[in-house]
Write a structure and sequence with these properties.
This protein has 230 residues and is of the alpha/beta class. It is built from 9 helices and 6 strands; from the N terminus they run αααβααβααβαββαβ. It is globular. It binds zinc ion (2 copies).
Length: 230
C-alpha cells in the first residue's frame, strides 16, 4: 500500500513492522514534519506566547487589568509556532479546504492535551464555531476537526452570529465590539470546566469573547487549546 505525505504528496517510505500496526501511522514525510516548529519554553504562562522569559506578557496583563475581561480565560495552550511552513499549511487547510490535512496534527495535538490538560479534569470541549455562511463556504469547521481528536465529550452550544473579519479591526475595536457569539443552551455547563478549541490564538480576542458568553451563563473555569500560537 502506498501512503502519500499529506503536505507535499510525495510517497512516504514505509517500514512495515509490528509497531506500525499499533501506532498512529505517519501522515507527513520527515522534511514536511520537521518544517513545523513546536513551541518551546519559556512562554507566557497565560497565553503560551513564546518569549524570553516566563512572565505574564503585556497583552495578557492588559486583559487581566480590565475588570470586564479579568479571569475570563484561565490560560491558553498551543502546540505549534506560526512559522512560514505553518502559514502555508494553515492556508491550504482552511482556505483551500483540504480537511484531510488535520490528520498531520493529531498525534501532537493529543500529546499536548494529555501533558497539559489531563490533570485539569475538563468536563466538556467546545470548538469555536464558524458563522453559518463561513461553514457553508468552507464545508468544515477546522476547530471541530481538532476537537474530535480529544477524548472528551463535545458540546456545540455556541453560535456565531456575525463574521466581520476580526483582523481588519484594531485591538481596541476588537475588545469593544459586540460579542459575535451567543449561547443556545446553557443547561449543561453550569459550574463546569470547559476547554475551548480553535486553530490559532492570535490576539486572544475570539477565544475571550466565546469564554465571556460561557462565563456569563454560569460556566466554571475556561481554558483554551489551539493548534497554533501566532
Ligand atoms: Zn512531505
Ligand atoms: Zn500572554
Amino acid at each position: 500500500m502506498i501512503i502519500l505525505c499529506l503536505i507535499c504528496h510525495e510517497e512516504l517510505s514505509q517500514q512495515m513492522s509490528w509497531s506500525s500496526f499499533l501506532l498512529i501511522e505517519p501522515k507527513a514525510c520527515d522534511d514536511c514534519y520537521q518544517s513545523l516548529k513546536k513551541i518551546q519554553s519559556p512562554t507566557c504562562p497565560r497565553c503560551f506566547r513564546p518569549q524570553e522569559n516566563d512572565h505574564v506578557c503585556q497583552d495578557c496583563q492588559a486583559w487581566e487589568n480590565d475588570p470586564q475581561w479579568k479571569n475570563i480565560l484561565q490560560k491558553n495552550l498551543s502546540v505549534f509556532e506560526y512559522n512560514d511552513s505553518m502559514k502555508e499549511l494553515l492556508a491550504t487547510f482552511k482556505f483551500r479546504g483540504d480537511a484531510a490535512l488535520v490528520e498531520v496534527f493529531q498525534k501532537d495535538f493529543l500529546a499536548s492535551y494529555k501533558a497539559s490538560f489531563f490533570k485539569e479534569k475538563i468536563d466538556f470541549v467546545i470548538p469555536i464555531p464558524l458563522s453559518p455562511e463561513r461553514l457553508y463556504e468552507r464545508g468544515f469547521n477546522q476547530a471541530k476537526l481538532l476537537a474530535n481528536f480529544l477524548p472528551l465529550p463535545q458540546i456545540d452550544i455556541l453560535t456565531r452570529t456575525h463574521h466581520e473579519k476580526q483582523s481588519k479591526k484594531s485591538r481596541q475595536e476588537r475588545i469593544t465590539a459586540s460579542n459575535v457569539f451567543s449561547i443556545v443552551d446553557s443547561s449543561k455547563i453550569m459550574n463546569k470546566k470547559i476547554l475551548l478549541i480553535d486553530d490559532i490564538y492570535t490576539t486572544g480576542s475570539t477565544l475571550r469573547h466565546a469564554a465571556k458568553v460561557l462565563k456569563d451563563n454560569g460556566t466554571g473555569s475556561i481554558f483554551s487549546f489551539t493548534l497554533i500560537r501566532s
